[in-house]
Amino acid sequence: MTTDNREAFLNGIAEKLGRERRRTGVKQPERVHTIANETLVGKTQDELLAIAKDACTRIHTDVVETPVAELAKHIEKIATNYGNESVLIADDQRFAEYGLQNLADNAWDKCAVSVWKEGRENRVANIATAADANIAIAFADFLLAESGSVVVESSPKQGRTLHFLPVHYIAIIPKSKIVPRSTQAADYYDARIASGQEIGSSINFISGPSNSGDIEMQLVVGVHGPISVTYIVVIDK
């Protein structure tokens, strides 16, 4: 919503309420219930990982644990299972930090690797690359233990289509980034906004491969997005 549209919208509501708009002294109300902050709080990272694994069995998602030294080996194995071919990765410095510079340099013998290109002028080309890619690989900000969802922030270095258009999707998550539920992820982004930081155009919660159920409640997996998803949890970084 643009600023002009927002002002018109809020002014319209105030008019219907028969009062002037309150522009100062407005505070966020206290929550009546605190279950959102209490669910799974106090669990260790090992316990949260176990809960996440159980949740992932229900959303048709594989979970692999690995030390950082073996991360590249596991990615290569998973990519081979997915048929290799073309790979699209985010423009993310963590690929180098986690020993995956060969991906960023397109030095992977079995796959042709493309890197998301920053800039509005590359939008059409990025979407086409994502649509043609067999595999996407990206780092997630969080893994939510309760639902088995990963959280990724869209940015100029990784647009939303990177996560949804390729046939297969691999998300890399440091073990320290496993949190109880969406509450903690939302608090993180809220704190960034409160401190004046800019965040991406969208925060995406990805719960395994795409799926859809028709009126007969027959689950169909891989209808409008990745048909298979693997989370790689890096346990020592």
Automatic annotation (TrEMBL):
<feature type="domain" description="LUD">
    <location>
        <begin position="52"/>
        <end position="234"/>
    </location>
</feature>
<dbReference type="InterPro" id="IPR024185">
    <property type="entry name" value="FTHF_cligase-like_sf"/>
</dbReference>
<dbReference type="InterPro" id="IPR003741">
    <property type="entry name" value="LUD_dom"/>
</dbReference>
<dbReference type="Pfam" id="PF02589">
    <property type="entry name" value="LUD_dom"/>
</dbReference>
<protein>
    <submittedName>
        <fullName>L-lactate dehydrogenase complex protein LldG</fullName>
    </submittedName>
</protein>
<dbReference type="InterPro" id="IPR037171">
    <property type="entry name" value="NagB/RpiA_transferase-like"/>
</dbReference>
